[in-house]
Amino acid sequence: MSCSHGCGVPCTVRISGNSQHDLMCNVQIRMVGPALTSLKTFSRSLPNPSGGPSRGVGIAAAAAAQRSAHDRSDGTLAETLIDGVTQSLALGLSAVSIAADSLARIQRVVAPLPAGFPPGPGSEVALNFLRSPLEFIDSLTQQYGSTVGLKLGGEQVVLTGDLCLSRQVLIDQADVFGKEGTAFFPGSSLAGNGLLVSDGPIWQRQRQLSNPAFRQRAVETYAKAMTDSTEAMLATQWQHSGRRDVYKDFNALTLQVTTQALFGDDLPAAEGLRVTGAIQRAFEYFAGRAALGFIIPEWLPTPDNLQYREAVQQLDSAVYSIIDSRSAKLATAPATGARQCLLDQLLLSKDEQGRGMNRRALRDELMTLLVAGQETSAILLGWACAFLAQHPEVQLRAVEEVQQVAAGALLPADVNGMRYLQAVVLETLRLRPPAYIVGRCAQRPVQLGAFSLPAGTTVLVSPWVLHRDSSVWQEPEAFKPERWMPLLETKSYMSEMSGLGSNGAYVPFGAGPRNCIGTGFAMMEALLVLAAILQRVQLRTVPGEGFPSADPRITLRPAKVPLFISAL
Ligand code: HEM
Predict the structure, then answer these.
(1) How many Å apart are CA 208 and CA 366, to the nearest integer?
(2) What is the pLDDT of residue 105?
(3) Cα–ligand 1 centroid distance for 49 (angstroms)
(4) 196 CA distance to ligand 1 centroid (A)?
(5) DSSP code for 32
(6) Where is heme annotated to bind (predicted)?
(7) For 200-435+468-505+508-567, which CATH class?
(8) Could you give the CA distance from residue 113 to residue 511 in angstroms, rounded to a whole number?
(9) Using an 8 Å Cβ cutoff, are 476 and 431 in contact?
């Protein structure tokens, strides 16, 4: 017997004429409904959170506290006072909003998918998704096509790898498909309200102020951090032949590159160690949360959360002291050209009114750049080396090219002459896009192609699916850097990063206004690091080890990349 209330749950047990289900529905509609509405209204009246495991309601109060301090404060004392008061309020408010969140979630889990939604499995599929995201995405698209309607963790979700619909979401209607309200968002006190999660005018201003730090000229000044750190790795850990998990090494390397590019190389050694130590601890925790799909709110005082909070506090104190000493230094002796680190660029950037970022905004952006730029780059390097080792003929051709272009120390301009290596990187990003899904939320009811989506629908655009579309890619599963060569004969590799690429199905760095601000940085880093490695080292597969398996969480990381390295 099916429900007459439209909640979609089959009724089985009858109690004196009424089914138990009728009873539950009545309780839900008569009592929970109004309570839910008022709690939801209350939650909505709070400033919108910067993200969270569900629609973010669970951490609304904490994030609201954070944001109100962020928006209003200019100085340390004001920030501290506002933080203190708002954080105490936050704990109380969070309990209320998490209750609202749970009720809303239960209601959404039992509700059917809206009419007009794309076809897909009708029941909740969060477990299948968490267990094996790539296989699950593949099986869904095989069964239902490139656009699928889902119920995921109680959220109404559309997954798409359709060329036109992806373009609509990321570019043509970027104003309708915003970040605000997106489900499964890795919001965290670590990255605060930085570029990755903020929206609307705050995002717009921060992006405008951050753009100069990522122009090509600026990126070239960070190249020294990339080549120096790689040299150091080659001269120490990679000095001797042997088997290594190169993915582990690349995580340390990209952390070194990012901190050095952000803060400059005159950071006192002790300060540098303090920062990297705190980042590593915070990142470990962050990865643990990601593995659980961010279901445990960050503000709950679990042992993990308390340790994490301590790591973030240590990181904050180190970063604030770097910000202060760097701005004092800039005031007396302005750094120029190659001496400027990314923090200098951010400190010097001003809006039309001549105002820059306040300390909190600076801190949030620096942390966001660490979060967004470190792991993704390590993932790209890990997969690229795995492909190079698996395809010795590709590696040989890349080595010959690198030796031809630069026999000695590498300069940023050298990468322009390494077209085959560029093709290797583009092909790696196609087959193993570190960001394999990117999320948006419909800010109002909207027509997505033939489908009608209610406001609040989360849309997950999948580079993983787009990059394997057999209508645009020949032999989509094959690693073939050659496929890129005709394009690279006439265009720069960066041209592939505009729009959805030249064939409309290539988005490793996203697309539209919210595309990756660090694209040029990441490409320069990958090319310089790989070129330096290929100048000196041969990469081989380890007998008995297959191609590295993926361990997809928020990003498409390899579980490990064991390779045999030996001097050329
Ligand atoms: C291989 C390396 C990288 C990949 C694959 C990658 C991928 C992406 C993607 C797909 C997005 C868009 C997300 C969305 O649409 O929701 C993004 C955004 C972003 N990335 Fe990257 N990224 C990489 C490296 C970096 C680096 C090195 C930095 C900084 C140093 C960085 C900073 C950011 C920031 C701040 C955003 C948010 C931009 C905004 O919304 O305005 N990324 N990245």
Answers:
(1) 15
(2) 62
(3) 20
(4) 8
(5) I
(6) 516
(7) mainly alpha
(8) 28
(9) no
Instruction: Output the six-digit token pair for 114.
Output: 């809206």
Q: What local confidence, expressed as pLDDT, does residue 52 receive?
A: 35
| pLDDT given for residue 137 in this prediction | 97
Q: Given this model, what pLDDT does residue 104 score?
A: 66
Residue linked to tokens 């990756």: 516
Domain boundaries defined on the chain? 14-110, 200-435+468-505+508-567
Pocket flag, ligand 1, residue 399 (CB < 6 Å):
no
Instruction: Pick the closest to residue 550 from 54, 126, 138, 159 (CA basis).
Output: 138
Q: Which amino acid is at 329?
A: K
**C-alpha 138 to ligand 1 mean position (Å):** 24
3-state class of 452 per DSSP?
Answer: strand
Handedness of CA 441, 446, 450, 453 (dihedral sign): positive
**Span from the CA of 518 to the centroid of ligand 1 (angstroms):** 6
Closest protein CA for atom 9 of ligand 1? 509
Q: pLDDT digits over 462-512, tens only? A: 999 999 999 999 999 999 999 999 999 999 999 999 999 999 999 999 999
C-alpha torsion angle, residues 243, 245, 246, 249 (rounded to 10) = -120
376 touches ligand 1 (CB under 6 Å): yes
Token pair in block for residue 393: 């003929």
**Per the annotation, does 441 bind a ligand?**
no
Three-state secondary-structure class, residue 151? strand
Beta bridge partners of residue 155, listed in sequence order: 152
- Strands, E assignment, 26-154: 147-152
Our answer on whether the CB atom of 361 is closer than 6 Å to any ligand 1 atom is no
Using alpha carbons, list the distances in angstroms from residue 504 to 167, 418, 473, 484. 8, 25, 11, 14
Task: Tell me how long the chain is.
Answer: 568
What is the model's pLDDT at position 333?
76
Distance (Å) of CA 414 to CA 365, 411, 429, 436, 527: 30, 5, 21, 30, 9
Q: Is the CB of 196 under 6 A from ligand 1?
A: yes
φ, ψ for residue 124 (rounded to 5)? -60, 130
For residue 6, is it left (φ>0), alpha (ψ between -120 and 50) or beta?
A: left
**pLDDT given for residue 301 in this prediction:** 82
Q: What is the pLDDT of residue 29?
A: 27
